[in-house]
Structure formats: structure tokens, C-alpha cells
Request: fold
Amino acid sequence: MPRLSNELLRHAFTINPLLPPLLRTCRTLPSAHNELRWLRQHVDARLEAKFGRKKDVPAPLRRRCVVNLVKKRARGVPLQYILGSQPFGDLDILCRKGVLIPRQATEEYTYRLSSILLSTPSLRTDPKQIRILDLCTGTGCIPLLLLSLLSPTLKTTVTGIDISLTTLALARRHDAQLASSLQRARALRFRRCPGFGRRVIG
Reply:
């Protein structure tokens, strides 16, 4: 990874002293600008929820909170863990330490799969229900987005399976928070498979 030039760091500092620390992980000034904006928005949302109105939030407290998050990001903590979520399609997926962050490539694959299923004539005319199984479901982002994309047109049930109780707890939080009438009808399930991932010798 190429070193950041002193000229770039000085330029970033003249714009905002909080930008140089973010450059350690962002590497480019536009990315650092974006992350600083998102961190500020995150702090504002949390403090406004606590104080009720933005004008009631003490400026020194806001500044201190932003600086603390910038320091955390500069240490390499993923932005999604700091903000607590990651966009995935039209969903906002919760992110927690110890659970893999949904990737853009995964989002693209999910859209591609839904496109294939929706464009298959036999599936559109067959009244039978489509059943999808997602192994190592993690945050549950794939089942959640698939159900969101398919359920208006195709009768669909999706099951996400994982060995980790931590990931399943997060996936089930999504199920509860993003619940729709289809999900309440048990079109989406998250289950633990204790034996999944065990090494088989024989």
C-alpha cells in the first residue's frame, strides 16, 4: 500500500483536522470526506434522540463524540461496525463485531439470482411455492433481500441457517424489525444447525 504524501496530509488538515486520521484507512480525500460526513450524521442522530432537539445538543459534546469515532475509525475499526449498519439493496442491515459485513458483491449476486427466478416462465405460472435455503446466513441479508424482491410476484419461503448464535440473533433482529405481512406468515425463518461445520472423519 503506497504511503500517503505529506502534501496530501497537509492539504487535508487545512480543510479539516479530522481528515488526516481518516486518510489512514480511507486512502483518498473524497472517501475521507464521505466517512467524516457519515460519522457526523451518526453522532447527530444519536445525540438528537437523547436531547430531543439538535439545538439542545452541547457543541463540545458533539465535537468530542465525532473525534472519538474518528479515532476509532483511524485504528482500523470497520465503518459499518461504528455506524451499526450497512445498506444492502433497499434494506439497512445491522452490523456487529463478530459478524461478517454484507459485501457489495453479495448484494449483486442476490439481485442476479432474483432476476433469474423472476424471469423464469415456469416459476411464474407454477403455483407451487419456491423454497430457498441459505447456508452460513450470517446477518440474514441474502434471505431478507431475496424475500423482499421475490415475494410480490412469487410465492416464496426462505430459510437461513448458521452455526453461530451471535449471527442468528442479529438475523432474527432484522426479521423482527423489517417484518412484513409475508414474514409474519412465516415466509422467512432463521435456524441454527449445531452439526453444521463439524469435521467429519471416516
Summary: The chain has a mean pLDDT of 89.
